[in-house]
């Protein structure tokens, strides 16, 4: 069983895979070694990988090494795709993992991962398994917060899917502008990729997918577990080396 740990600023996410099959997953606000032990308690972990953007518990890495080969993902970690990004040392682990995941899901096809979270991240892999990069844009909540922060009178409002193109109040005008703006952006960017790469496959992931997966007009796939799947593929690649 492979153990995947994704340690973010807000949550710690854990997943267990048997080869390529997701067997279990959990999320904690502040993950501890004790919580992890409880999570894996009925499973035999043979290898693990950590993707971390925080200063995690010092006891975590030594504990994982008692279970089997363990890796901490960074820019020097071997991955099963060619990375042509000009600044790999600044490339987010989640972006790299998403790129690996779509390349595995659609072998020998161009593929675009769109991760909809705090930021909207676009990551593209060619049919030759070459990661070229992509784009980063403000996410849903960030855009609403910006309207409130950089004006005197616009309120801070919640994320909401809205079908109306024309808002009939300040609140619905803000929701329509941000929501429909993101839909237009995603559709427009996918169309531009399709012009250059007609066979491009698109996968949506991230916490805000629930707002947009039915609104994107192109043929796309939605996968809430794209990032851990990519991390698992990176782990398997390293174990096999």
Summarize the structure.
The protein has helices at 33-40, 60-67, 93-105, 140-149, 170-196, 209-212, 226-240; strands at 2-7, 12-18, 21-28, 47-52, 70-72, 82-83, 111-116, 119-125, 130-138, 201-205, 221-222. It has 241 residues and is of the alpha/beta class.
Describe the structure.
- The protein is an alpha/beta fold and 241 residues long.
- The chain is 35% helix and 25% strand.
- It has seven helices and eleven strands.
- Strands 6-9-8-7-10-11 form a six-stranded mixed beta sheet. Strands 3-2-1-4-5 form a five-stranded mixed beta sheet, with helices on both faces.
- A hairpin with a 2-residue loop joins strand 2 and strand 3.
- Helix 3 crosses helix 7 and helix 4 packs across helix 5.
- 34% of the residues are buried.
User: What would the average pLDDT be, to the nearest integer?
Assistant: 93
Describe the global form: globular
Low-pLDDT stretches are: none
Oligomeric status? single chain
Number of strands: 11
Using brief descriptors, characterize the structure shown:
241 residues, alpha/beta, 5-stranded mixed β-sheet, 6-stranded mixed β-sheet
Layout of helices and strands:
Blueprint: E1 2-7, E2 12-18, E3 21-28, H1 33-40, E4 47-52, H2 60-67, E5 70-72, E6 82-83, H3 93-105, E7 111-116, E8 119-125, E9 130-138, H4 140-149, H5 170-196, E10 201-205, H6 209-212, E11 221-222, H7 226-240
Parallel strand pairs: 1-4, 4-5, 6-9, 7-10, 10-11
Antiparallel strand pairs: 1-2, 2-3, 7-8, 8-9
Helix pairs in contact: 3-7, 4-5
């Amino acid at each position: 069983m492979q153990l995947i740990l994704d340690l973010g600023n807000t949550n710690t996410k854990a997943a267990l895979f048997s080869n390529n099959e997701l067997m279990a997953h959990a999320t904690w606000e502040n993950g501890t070694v004790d919580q992890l032990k409880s999570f894996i308690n009925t499973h035999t972990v043979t290898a693990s990988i950590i993707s971390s953007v925080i200063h995690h518990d010092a006891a975590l890495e030594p504990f994982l090494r008692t279970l089997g080969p363990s890796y901490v993902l960074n820019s020097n970690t071997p991955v099963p795709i060619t990375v042509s990004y000009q600044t790999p040392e600044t490339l987010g682990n989640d972006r790299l993992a998403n790129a690996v995941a779509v390349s595995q899901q659609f072998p020998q096809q161009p593929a675009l991962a769109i991760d909809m979270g705090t930021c909207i991240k676009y990551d593209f892999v060619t049919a030759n398994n070459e990661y070229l990069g992509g784009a980063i844009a403000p996410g849903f909540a960030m855009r609403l917060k910006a309207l409130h922060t950089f004006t005197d009178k616009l309120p801070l409002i919640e994320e909401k899917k809205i079908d109306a193109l024309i808002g009939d109040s300040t609140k619905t005008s803000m929701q329509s502008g941000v929501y429909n703006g993101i839909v237009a952006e995603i559709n427009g960017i996918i169309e531009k990729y399709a012009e250059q790469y007609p066979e491009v496959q698109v996968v949506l992931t991230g916490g805000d997918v629930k707002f947009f997966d039915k609104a994107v007009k192109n043929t796309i796939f939605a996968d809430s577990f794209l990032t851990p799947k990519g991390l698992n593929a990176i782990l398997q690649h390293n174990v096999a080396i």
